[in-house]
Design brief:
This protein is of the alpha+beta class. The protein is built from 6 helices and 8 strands.
Length: about 230
């Protein structure tokens, strides 16, 4: 292969030196059908001239295309994972990556900062275990479990409790990640802290209820006074 030829030409001569008779290397050669095949060459120089120049080399070639393709795919996947981790580490939202059974594999710093759990403390735990049963209905918890078991995404507002006991309301968005064959490999969950918004809405509802109660009390008082005056 044009990309492999320079290093192979550069390294071949030193590897057939009498002081280093054995060499091993991987490169691509063109198949008769025109495709490129990765081979692993293991060889040894077995005969030299009196001046030490190599005369005969014996060795083997092994087709390692499948392994090489898998390594390249893994490398590309790891590169994508690093990019995802880089993005996830800079967001204020909580990001969790789980395996296919929703067991935690990785969390970002925002998760650890809000819920007080380090990565080592949560690896292997069920994602649903972080939901607070006091603030999240059992029906909603079971719905999350059902959707995950079915390999489907889910969105819900849930309650969570930190390691130190603080309560939060989080908006959960969980999505499956499948391979090229459609097999679920991971789930990515993003959780948004909506506690301030929920508390504001709660305070507004309370204020509205108080205002309505005050209005009713005034109306009742005026009606009562009007009745008394007429009497």
């Amino acid at each position: 292969h044009p990309d492999d030829r320079p290093f192979l030409q550069r390294d071949f001569a030193p590897r057939t030196d009498a002081r280093r008779p054995y060499f091993e290397t991987e490169y691509r050669i063109r198949h008769s059908d025109g495709t490129w095949v990765w081979v692993l060459e293991r060889a040894k120089c077995v005969s030299y001239t009196p001046e030490g120049r190599p005369v005969r080399v014996t060795g083997t070639f092994q087709d390692v295309s499948s392994r090489k393709e898998a390594e390249l795919a893994l490398s590309a996947s790891q590169a994508e994972t690093r990019k995802l981790a880089m993005v996830a580490s800079t967001t204020d939202n909580l990001v969790v990556i789980t395996d296919a059974k929703a067991r935690v594999e990785w969390v970002n710093e925002s998760f650890s900062r809000l819920l007080d759990y380090s990565l080592s403390e949560v690896v292997g735990r069920d994602l649903v275990s972080f939901l607070d049963s006091e603030g999240t209905s059992q029906a909603e918890i079971e719905q999350v479990r059902t959707e995950v078991r079915g390999g489907r995404g889910h969105t819900a507002d849930v309650a969570a409790r930190s390691k130190t006991g603080r309560k939060f309301t989080l908006h959960l968005e969980i999505q499956p990640v499948a391979d090229d064959n459609g097999v679920i490999q991971n789930f990515i969950a993003v959780l948004y802290d909506i506690t301030p918004r929920v508390e504001t809405e709660r305070n507004l509802r309370h204020a509205k209820a108080q205002a309505e109660a005050t209005t009713r009390a005034k109306s009742e008082f005026l009606a009562s006074m009007s009745h008394e005056i007429r009497t």
